[in-house]
């Protein structure tokens, strides 16, 4: 009997443990490694190719809704069953073709109903695909060929073109992102995480509180004590500080570019 490959994406250790225990009671399931956030999930999906993902919505780095959108963009064949304590995402979840939406705390009987639905969906999926699965690689999406940056701005999930980002600033644990279209977004993503996600693009950290797009710099003007200010092409009012320690590296990068 071919086993159904199952993956759990959940940032709470106890919730992962409890769900895994219930799923282990089913003979036709093969449990894959768990993911603790949406970013890790995408890497694991590409490697393990699960048939079904039990996914929490509120996770760090990349939440469940954002991960589901990227899975859909990559034409992943994995079914998704959301497991969450919040009922206000149900409409959006089913808009992403979720096979089910389990509200925590759910019973073993309720989980069995979901598993029955999953099995029926997989039979239909196999029949339609003729046993052949065709999908884009999620690792390809994450290594630069996927050209959008997903951020969570309040209750919204926004896809940004990195090339349009002028700069980002961290203030009181909130990151503000400013774009060339004069739009501003706020996110709880740290500036370090944002810098990591934009590693394939020409962004530079001139100051511990700022991240700037090198392609959006118009001029660099002296300030005092060896420090400088960056003036941007599309927002000349913004003055991005360049610390004395980072000025040498900034000029080196610009000369090499």
List keywords for this structure.
8 helices, five-stranded antiparallel β-sheet, five-stranded parallel β-sheet, 2 domains
What best-fitting shape do the alpha-carbon axes yield? elongated
Low-confidence blocks of residues: 130-137, 139-146
How would you spell out the order of helices and strands? EHEHEHEHEHHEEEEEHEEEEEH
The average pLDDT score comes to 85
Sheet with the most strands, sense and barrel status: 5 strands, parallel
Strand adjacency order, main sheet:
2-1-3-4-5
* Radius of gyration over C-alpha positions, nearest whole angstrom: 22 Å
CATH level-1 class of the largest domain: Alpha Beta
Helical percentage: 25-40%
CATH architecture of the largest domain: 3-Layer(aba) Sandwich
Taken as a percent bin, the fraction of beta residues is 25-35%
What's the tally of helices? Answer: 8
Would you report the number of β strands? 15
Full CATH superfamily name of the largest domain: Response regulator
Summed up, the domain count is 2
Short description:
The chain is an alpha/beta fold and 257 residues long. The protein has helices at 13-23, 38-48, 64-73, 90-95, 108-129, 138-145, 191-197, 244-256; strands spanning 4-9, 29-31, 52-55, 79-84, 100-103, 149-153, 156-160, 165-171, 174-179, 184-187, 203-207, 210-213, 217-222, 228-232, 239-242.
């Amino acid at each position: 009997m071919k086993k159904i490959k199952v993956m759990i994406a959940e940032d709470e250790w106890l919730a992962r443990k409890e769900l895994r225990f219930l799923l282990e009671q089913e003979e036709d399931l093969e449990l894959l490694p768990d993911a603790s956030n949406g970013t890790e999930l995408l890497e694991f999906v590409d490697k393990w190719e699960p048939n079904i993902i039990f996914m929490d919505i509120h996770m760090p780095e990349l939440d469940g809704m954002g991960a589901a959108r990227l899975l859909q963009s990559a034409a992943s064949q994995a079914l998704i069953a959301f497991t969450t304590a919040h009922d206000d995402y149900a409409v959006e979840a089913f808009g992403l073709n979720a096979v089910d939406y389990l509200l925590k705390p759910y019973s073993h009987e309720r989980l069995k109903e979901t598993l029955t639905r999953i099995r029926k969906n997989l039979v239909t999926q196999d029949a339609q695909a003729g046993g052949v699965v065709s999908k884009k690689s999620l690792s390809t999406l994450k290594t630069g060929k996927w050209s959008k940056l997903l951020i969570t701005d309040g209750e919204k999930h926004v896809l940004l073109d990195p090339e349009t980002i002028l700069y980002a600033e961290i203030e009181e644990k909130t990151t503000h992102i400013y774009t060339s279209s004069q739009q501003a977004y706020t996110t709880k993503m740290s500036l370090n995480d944002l810098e990591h996600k934009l590693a394939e693009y020409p962004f530079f950290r001139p100051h511990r509180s700022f991240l700037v797009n090198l392609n959006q710099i118009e001029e660099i003007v002296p300030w005092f004590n060896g420090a400088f200010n960056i003036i941007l092409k599309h927002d000349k009012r913004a003055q991005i500080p360049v610390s004395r320690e980072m000025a040498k590296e900034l000029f080196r990068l610009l000369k090499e570019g």
